[in-house]
């Protein structure tokens, strides 16, 4: 196996994207929620569609959301899950660009939406809001760059392993990626056969275990050690 020693060592756990609300105090969160409109959604209900132009910041108060894009063949390419405290639509607050993804609720979900002008007024009065949003957005951008690196540089099995590591939620959540195998393949840009081959190898190494609709990490330390041996990273 080739080693990529030019990559700087990196512990991805230090770079897991933290929710926007985690950077704010309870009082700041309360004021932020009071400035927005609360919307309750059922499982699968659309929150936003790709191309929407209504500017504003959306925050998941409870539940979760999935983001993705429909391909030309109608297949939904899942790109990420967002949990409580995370935000989306940030760039519509600062640019005139439309929303880039279709976003729908995962289970019963409550979303707080704050119009762009209202959020900017809050940020002008209390810059902590802007600072928190910048930190959360930059952390997410960092993870996206790691994903692009995996897609462009790494061989098949390490590529899949790195995506699983990035997508695994941090404690106290269970180390489980809630992706169907076909969805994960579409997200990384692999055929189902290639994804099955990679997951089978990782399963044979006893690093992961496949369940219905999810992939469980059996030993994250083992996964990190294996990735380091295979790629020279971390």
**CATH superfamily annotation of the largest domain:** Jelly Rolls
Task: Domain count, please report it.
Answer: 2
Structural class: alpha+beta
Compute the CA-based radius of gyration: 19 Å
**CATH architecture designation of the largest domain:** Sandwich
Query: Class of the largest domain in CATH?
Result: Mainly Beta
CATH topology of the largest domain, by name, is Jelly Rolls
Distance between the termini: 17 Å
**Helical fraction:** 40-55%
Main β-sheet description: 6 strands, antiparallel
Compute the average pLDDT: 84
Strand residues, percent: 15-25%
What's the helix count?
Answer: 8
Concise description?
The chain is an alpha+beta fold. The protein has eight helices and nine strands.
Q: What is the element layout, followed by pairings?
A:
Layout lengths: L25 H9 L2 E5 L4 E3 L7 E15 L5 E7 L4 E2 L1 H5 L7 E14 H10 L2 H26 L2 H12 L8 E2 L3 H8 L3 H13 L3 E4 L2 E4 L2 H12 L3
Antiparallel strand pairs: 1-6, 2-6, 3-4, 3-5, 3-6, 7-9, 8-9
Explain what this protein looks like in three dimensions.
Residues 1-10 have low confidence and may be disordered. This protein is globular. The longest helix has 26 residues, at 128-153. It has helices at 26-34, 90-94, 116-125, 128-153, 156-167, 181-188, 192-204, 220-231, and strands spanning 37-41, 46-48, 56-70, 76-82, 87-88, 102-115, 176-177, 208-211, 214-217. It folds into 2 domains: 20-139, Jelly Rolls (Sandwich); 154-231, Arc Repressor Mutant, subunit A, CATH 1.10.10. The two termini are 17 Å apart. It contains 8 helices and 9 strands. Helix 5 (156-167) runs antiparallel to helix 8 (220-231). It is an alpha+beta fold and 234 residues long. Strands 1, 2, 3, 4, 5 and 6 form a 6-stranded antiparallel β-sheet that branches. The protein has a 3-stranded antiparallel β-sheet with strand order 7-9-8.
């Amino acid at each position: 196996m080739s080693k990529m020693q030019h990559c700087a060592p990196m512990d991805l756990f230090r770079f897991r994207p933290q929710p926007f609300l985690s950077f704010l105090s309870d009082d700041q969160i309360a004021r932020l929620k009071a400035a927005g409109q609360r919307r309750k959604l059922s499982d699968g209900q659309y929150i936003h569609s790709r191309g929407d132009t209504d500017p504003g910041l959306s925050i998941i108060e409870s539940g979760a959301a999935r983001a993705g894009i429909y391909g030309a063949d109608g297949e939904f390419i899942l790109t990420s899950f967002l949990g409580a405290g995370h935000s989306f639509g940030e760039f519509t607050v600062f640019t005139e660009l439309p929303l880039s993804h279709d976003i729908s609720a995962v289970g019963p979900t409550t979303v707080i939406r704050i119009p762009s002008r209202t959020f900017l007024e809050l940020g002008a009065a209390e810059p902590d809001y802007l600072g928190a949003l910048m930190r959360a957005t930059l952390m997410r951008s960092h993870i996206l760059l790691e994903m692009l690196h995996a897609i462009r540089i790494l061989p098949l099995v390490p590529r899949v392993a790195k995506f699983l590591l990035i997508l695994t939620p941090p404690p106290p959540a269970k180390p489980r990626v809630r992706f169907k195998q076909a969805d994960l393949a579409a997200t990384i840009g692999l055929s189902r056969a290639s994804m099955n081959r990679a997951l089978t190898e990782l399963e044979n190494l006893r690093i992961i275990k496949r369940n219905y609709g999810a992939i469980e990490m059996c030993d994250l330390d083992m996964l990190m050690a294996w990735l380091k041996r295979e790629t020279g990273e971390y």
